[in-house]
Predict the 3D structure of the following.
Amino acid sequence: MYNKILSLNWWSRVISLVVLLLVFDFQAEGRAAETGEFSGTWIANGTREVFPFGAERNVYTFNLTGHVNLQTTIGQKKDYWSTCVGLSDSFTGTVARCVWQDLDGPEVYITLQSDQMQEDNIVTGNIIGGSMHLQGIQGALSFKWSSVTFQKDGKKATVTGQAADLVGSYQIP
């Protein structure tokens, strides 16, 4: 009987220790939600390729890379390298999917839409997720193309664009 009591006492101590370790481990992993607003600049360049889609319709794909420099931080960072791929159609508008990557690795995933990719057009977008400590990030952003230039070479063109009035808000759970 004494051995059963010792055995139960030992098991209750082991279970208590495991519970304590789990509770403290989960508290150490938890962090407070971060919300904020941001503004900054975005300069990108790349290529645009005409996609033949009838005589009355201008359709092209594009691939842009560039630098996002924020005046305020997202996830403690102000500088991101951007990569965007997209499709522009003179009838339906422009859509793009972008990744902003922090130089230390975490990424922010963004969807963009606009009437056309041209100067003075307003672009709106949604932050739909991220990686590492930015996982679950959500938000919205907008900007206006302050300049867009094209250097044509056959079906391909070099594109350079600069975003003005880049603003947005976000929440990291």
